[in-house]
Amino acid sequence: MTHALSLNPTTGQTLQHYAFQSDEQLELALAGNFAAFQQWRYTPLAERADTLVRLAQVLRNMAEPLARMITEEMGKPISQARGEVEKCAGLCEWYAEHGPAMLAAEATQVPGNKARIEYRPLGPVLAVMPWNFPLWQVLRGAVPVLLAGNSYLLKHAPNVMGSATLLHDAFIEAGLPEHLFALLNVEPQGVSRAIADSRVAAVTVTGSVRAGSAIAAQAGAALKKCVLELGGSDPFIVLADADLDEAVNAALLGRFQNTGQVCAAAKRLIIESSVLPAFTEKFVAAAKALKIGDPLNEDTYIGPMARYDLRDELDGQVQASIAQGAQLLLGGHKIEGVGNYYAPTVLAGVEPGMTAFDQELFGPVAAIIEARDAEHALALANDSEFGLTASVWTANEAMIERFIERLETGGVFINGYSASDARVGFGGVKKSGFGRELSHFGIREFCNAQTVWLDRR
Predict the structure, then answer these.
(1) What's the pTM value of the predicted model, to 2 decimals?
(2) From 72, 263, 437, 447, active-site residue
(3) What are the pLDDT digits (tens) for 17-29?
């Protein structure tokens, strides 16, 4: 194959071919990015922050073409696509305001202020990013990376290269130096060459466990810093004393936002026995009422899945779960006709050992799991190879503290569904990856924490 293909999942029509870069073009991109880093690292921090302020305004000015490109390339409903653009603009402004303080010299316990920690940029950071949030996934890493004085090399998913190109244009319009934010449109061997290149200082990956494992192995062999944000099968736990209406509404948003194509989503709905029937009835009725259709329509909530192969994979997981004993309460099939649509699906009676429990379901499918009591719910939640986020619904303060202490996840959300926010760190444990994005964690992950000790005589 000689090109990346952007395909509209709503119509099945080809949007654009993007030719893969040759070895010579890859070398030019790496050389240009490294040279830009050498200049940018010494640009005053205040000027770097000002660039982010301008970028926020450019993103808002480009909101409609950016949102429409997202919708056309991967099927996100247009209202959600606009929300993604605005969230990115807010991220830029937040880091412009708060990021410089996170990079300030840090005092130590050495008396007389003779020692401190300085945060220095590492160099070019290679980012391998997914398609499900074409802007947010990129910017939540790129913004702190660039503010810290590094440069950024983006290898985006092949099906959203149009979004990547528009984002690159936005950076240039905001005044970012040429080549500092570089696009790599390369095949896997090109990624491998970039990782091995001595000019690349670190690697960050958001994607599948398989992709993350392969890239992390190459980064490790090259002794490069690596951050991974991989899959998730997040538990959404509802205990007997929860507000059921609020929990159902949150579960609906947490599971079906972005047509269910979210890493940190309410994938395993673990419900205490005494409220299971009521929760199930309310949840199925709400899921049945979701508007499915053209993602360019303002009232559409469920659009097409981004890729046809992923719809086939999801349907295979659903059918396997039913064969293993799961009960199909809603959906469970591809929607016939034009477009890559899958019916909103609810499986009940899901248990450990079933595909819907053990694997990540990346699409509009919810798995309802019965818990005998709170302790059983906690055990079920931790019975996973993933550990990204968890959501817990209860009014019991003691139980809240117990779940916070015992859940094996990177994030715990009490009486709310999982989300990422610039103000707090984001990342997972187990096979959900390692390292953190956002907040001060994200800006310092790709810094050299340099110890400075003055006059030790």
Answers:
(1) 0.97
(2) 263
(3) 999 999 999 999 9
